[in-house]
Amino acid sequence: MKFIMENKFRNKTGIIILAAGSSSRLGSPKQLLKYKESTLLKNTISQASKVSSAFIIVVTGSEAEIIEKEFNTEEILFSFNPDWQNGMSSSIIKGIEELLHFNPDCEQCILAVCDQPFVTSFVFENLIRESNKNQKGMAASAYSETLGTPVLFHKKYFQELLKLKGQEGAKKLIKKHLDDVISVPFEKGNIDIDTEDDYSQLISFDK
Questions:
Q1: Which residue stretches of the chain have pLDDT < 50?
Q2: Which branch of life, at top level (predicted)?
Q3: How many angstroms separate the CA atoms of 177 and 98, rounded?
């Protein structure tokens, strides 16, 4: 586990990148798929790192050692989730627990995944900006007539996030508290990588 520099703990926004899945439909770790002379995970981390008001936690699980070897920085906290096979909720819980452990005064966090290739620092910053401007407890990315990741949660929802189970994710809370959600457009947010066909289309699109 690598530790975030001390001054990062004072930041009020955490970005938790969920990167623990086994990529069973793909057959190889999607986190390490080559993309833009980098990888999907490195791209997500790079964009998150541009958000000056945030620190980053990456939750790993399957192939954790291989994934973490790709990085050599103390700017990011890698946190291994031993229960990753129990579903996405376990990784969300692990990320929130680490956030509260290292920065109990954190005001909000953004949950992100590693397989949305078109995520940018602007997407993260826009969630923070719109949440603050509209005084909403959640700011969710809007694409393909749905709300999803990346999604920002005010600290008042941390305890509910810690109670998620199995495959439950952020959408459960979004649906439950729709009156406290601001939707933030994310162009191409519907594009994620789950299969070889998805990846082939991404590479073709990016050429």
A1: 1-6
A2: Bacteria
A3: 24
